[in-house]
Sequence to fold (228 residues):
Amino acid sequence: MELKKNPKADLEKRRGLYLEIGLVVILAAALMALEVKSYDKEEKEQFVREASEEQEEIIIQTQQDELPPPPPPEQPEVTTEFEVVEDDKEITNELVVDAEVKEETKNIEITPVVVEEEEEEEEQQIFTVVENDPEFPGGMDALYKYLAQNIKYPQLARDNNITGRVYVTFVVERDGSITGCRVLRDIGGGCGQEAIRVVKSMPKWTPGKQRGKAVRVQFNLPVNFNLQ
Fold:
């Protein structure tokens, strides 16, 4: 029995179409392969470049750290030379000069420095309380007797019947003399001036002492004015 082909199933008519489709597929595959390979190549080149740059930086840093320290400066060699001389030869050197200097220094007299500032301050200082108080010649009884005999009652105070007590302060110096006399409290009528006059005319006192040494002492004295 003879087989007959269906005209619709005849592939010879569509050979050209299938050939074109195949070429298009092959070309597309080739292009895709080229793109993938170039991308991988670019990534590899970029990775290799970055790795090489990092290695160069690390190498430079290690080279700086591994630099050897500078050598120490050379010290001059100290050599001692000895000279052999005969027994009869006289030896002169710098020791003789040193000996002469030492002999000169023996004759230098060292004078101690005397500090007089403290003594001057003590001389100028005025004490109010001391170990030994200054004293009028003969004691306090002699002082009151002296005041009673030498005070002249001011006429103004007598006329105005002024009585009371005048306080006078003064300094008994280291030699017993009286300085710095002034009135602390006055009652008027010329009584303060009369008290100052009598105090300044007093004889020298026995000076006050502090640690066995005469010092300046401030002394306050009351002077009574009473009408009889």
